[in-house]
Amino acid sequence: MTLTQSLLVIGLLIAASAFFSMAEISLAAARRLRLRQMADEGDARADRVLRLQEQPGDYFTVVQVGQNAVAILGGIVGEGALSPHFTALAGLWLSDGSAQNIGFLASFLVITSLFILFSDLFPKRLGMAEPESLVVRLAQPMVFLMTVLRPLVWFYSKGADALFRLLGLSSLRDDRITSDDILAMMEAGARAGVLAAREQQVITNVFELDTRMVSSAMSPRDRIAFFLRDEPDAVIRLRIAAEPFSTYPVCEGDIDHVVGYVDAKDLFQRVLNNQPISLADDSLVRKVLIVPDRLTLSEVLEQFRQVHEDFAVIVNEYSLVVGVVTLNDVMSTVMGDLVGPADEEQIVRRDENSWLIDGVTPVEDVLHALGLDELPHNDEYETLAGFLMVMLRRVPRRTDSVSWGGYKFEVLDVDSFRIDQVMVSRLKPAPLDSGSAEHPAAPAAH
Prior knowledge:
Function: Involved in cadaverine and putrescine tolerance in stationary phase. May facilitate the efflux of both cadaverine and putrescine from the cytoplasm, reducing potentially toxic levels under certain stress conditions.
Shape: elongated
Structural class: alpha+beta
Number of domains: 4
Protein name: Polyamine export protein
InterPro entries: CBS_dom, CBS_dom_sf, CNNM, FAD-bd_PCMH-like_sf, FAD-bd_PCMH_sub2, Ion_transp-like_CBS, Transptr-assoc_dom
Mean pLDDT: 81
Number of strands: 13
Domain CNNM transmembrane: 1-199
Strand order of the largest sheet: 8-9-12-11-10-13
Radius of gyration: 35 Å
Membrane topology: Multi-pass membrane protein
Number of helices: 15
Strand content: 5-15%
Helix content: 40-55%
């Protein structure tokens, strides 16, 4: 075989090896969601690739048979084609034995470098960059090779299956997509600039609806504006003017005996028509949705959907009212700071190292603002005020503080045992001396 023929054969072997490399990496890297979208758009090749991904054993067997066969042939052809020329060149300066060694080594390095660059690195990088578009083109030739090499494929596949069974491993690809996978993709998209940071936060908030309790979004008991059923017209009008809301619970005797609710639109309509307002009128008081305080926000949304309501009263296990929640409250939790006036923010960042936080702020929001993973005893409370009570083991007073995870939580204002404002400051790391250090997450209560 002449040098030209040998180089042509080597080029064909490199092309064959590149084909198998691209076929392997593109099938492994192809995203099922993208392939499913292509199949739904009418691309039958994408549907074939999806089936191959479900049972990829025969496919990868053909890849390995092809790559190893090409590598062996490349070594044989390359050594026979290039070694004599490198040996002759080295013989001009070296002895015959040394020239043969140098010729073999040079031939080996050249052939190996060509295969690494053109049949491995370049095709695999190309396959990683455009996996779906490549795999749909390469799938049909690979299916043809799987048919032609069926006996070899069967032999090696059965051997691989036996090894999997012996080791107790599964050879099936797990294509389940979890919420963590989606959140990771959203984070990657935000870092790449494809997804805005606020859009990423909205998606994260949606997934948190299954874990956040309704109490994290409700208006607490002490902030509820309600009417007693026997209150006169003048009192009702004054309360509407003093506390304008869209919905008011209607109670019998006290707040813990809710009999319904009244919509502000109905009240305003009566005012505009110069009609008296009497909550004894059953046509004015609507049936109210009562939900327990242990529901998650997603469960509350489902309750709203079932009864076609957007307002609910929340009660605890003792049937005492602990708060009210509206559909707007839940959606505000999802949208975050994209909605709502600035003066209603529960977390205000004062500077780089300090925050002013309302005591009723849900723990999840506090963790997100401070960049913490969790707070201690997190199953015993749902708000920042609850965290301070658990850590102090008593009702906090002004100037009480708790240090945890590199932050100091200091109570600034308490109103009738309710924690109004908490100053959170980032602690400076303590200097290390004599080989001892305070654990950065060690709690300290004052």
